Structure formats: C-alpha cells, structure tokens
Amino acid sequence: MAMESVANSVQLPPLDNPNERSAVGAELQVVLQDLIDLSLIGKQLHWSVVGAAAHSVHLFLDELVGEWRELADVVAERAVTLGFVPDGQSSAVAAGSRVEAVEVQSLADHAVVWELGRRVAAVAERIRERLGSIGAADLVTQDVLIKVVGMLEKHQWLLRVQLGQKA
To answer: Which H, E and C letters describe 28-73, residue by residue?
Structure first.
C-alpha cells in the first residue's frame, strides 16, 4: 500500500492552534468585507471627484480599487485554504463591513483624498490590532494579513502625498 503524499492529501493545513480554525476564518471574513467595501467606496469617490486634480485623482483611485480587490482575493483564498468559505456578496459586505460610508455627492479632489485616506487608515489599524491574536492561531494567516496591512499603509502614504503632507 502506497502512502498518500502530502501534496495529494485532502486534509486542511495544520494551524498552530487548530481549535481556532473557525475564529481565524471569521477574522478573515471581517477583513474581506472591509476590503470589498473599501473598494466600493473608492469607486464611489472615483465617480464623485471634481476639481483641478480630478483627472489624476480619478485615475489614482482606479489603481487603488484594483489593488484592494486583489488584496480581498488573497484574503478570501486564504480563508478557503483553511476550509472556511468566505462570503463576499453585497448583503454580507453591507451587514459586516466596518468602513464608514461616504455621502453620495460631488466632492473636491482634496476632500476625496482626505476621506479615503481616513478610511484606509482605519482598516489598516483594525487589521493591525488583530495580528497578535491571529498569529497565535496561525502564523501563515498572520503573514498574509501583515502583507495586507503593509499595502494599506503604503496607500496611506500615497494618499498623504496627494494632499501635500510630509511622508
């Protein structure tokens, strides 16, 4: 009888604390919802921007939205890898996201950058606050979320630069 290789195994990846699998999945779900909502808010602001720098801010927001969607995909795929099925549907995002909504109105270019910067910072901070507890359960998931925070903090810096603030 041949032994089944690890590569062919249907077992889930082991966690440092296997009893926390559902908790890690739930944390990934919350991050996923925030990232999806952040991308939706970014797109809303993309459509709402007016002013002298509107064109460049409009294009910049497209880049950010694309990167947030990629980050959401990475987070969702990590959840699936752990055996947790994430929910990125609009109803789940609306019910679970902690990202502050924006008013549906035209906004000056600098106001768009300011409003988005605040929200990016809040999402990064919430993820950062949970890194220790997630790392206690699963270092690989912690690493995924460290990369997410790193990218969000880079976006914060890029948004600050748009406002003429010091790096």
So the answer is: HHHHHHHHHHHHHHHHHHHHHEECCCHHHHHHHHHHHHHHHHHHHH
Please say whether the dihedral angle defined by the alpha carbons of residues 86, 91, 92 and 93, taken in this order, is positive or negative.
positive
Of the candidates 97, 37, 91, which has an alpha carbon nearest to the alpha carbon of residue 69? 37
Q: What pLDDT does 12 receive?
A: 87
* Residue closest to 68 by CA, chosen among 140, 148, 143: 148
How far apart, in whole angstroms, are the C-alpha atoms of residue 53 and residue 48? 13
Position 110 in a domain? yes
Q: Which residues of the chain have pLDDT under 70?
A: 1-10, 165-167
Q: Is residue 59 part of a domain?
A: yes
Kindly report the pTM of this predicted structure.
Answer: 0.91
The pLDDT score that the predictor gives to residue 93 is: 98
Query: How many domains in the chain?
Result: 1
- Domain around 79: 19-162
List alpha helices for the chain, DSSP H. 21-48, 54-81, 90-96, 109-137, 139-162
Q: What is the pLDDT of residues 32-62, one digit of tens each?
A: 999 999 999 999 999 999 999 999 999 999 9
